[in-house]
Write a structure and sequence with these properties.
flat; single chain; 21% helix; 2 strands; alpha+beta; 56 residues
Length: 56
């Protein structure tokens, strides 16, 4: 973990997964994709497909 007075960077935790899925894969056309490189296609996916194998 890296931390200073304004920011902490830590390893990904299981509790982060729902929010990451929501931001990245929930919508077909998320807002951030307007600013992403156009040559990388985006595909929405279900939460179950997003989860690592064996987690529900």
């Amino acid at each position: 973990m890296i931390s200073d007075q304004e920011l902490t960077i830590r390893p990904l935790e299981e509790r982060d997964l729902p929010r990451l899925w929501e931001l990245i894969y929930k919508d077909e056309q998320p807002e951030w994709k307007k600013w992403d490189a156009p040559y990388y296609p985006h595909e929405a996916m279900t939460y179950e497909k997003f989860l690592p194998t064996g987690q529900k």
